[in-house]
Amino acid sequence: xxxxxxEILVCPLCKGPLDYRKHRSELVxxxxxxxYPVKDDIPVMLEGEARQMPADEE
Length: 58
Known about the structure:
It comes from Denitratisoma oestradiolicum. By secondary structure, the protein is mostly beta strands. Helix content is 10%, strand content 29%.
């Protein structure tokens, strides 16, 4: 994942910062508890494609 792209991407819902989790290939918004998939190095920033994170997952 390009680090320059990571610097400008934000959560489409709350406009907050995202954390890249390389081991799961996803971008995580902690306040919204959503994990957006990264497929072939392309982030899929659609709420319908995001994984809802369980309360016990950080």
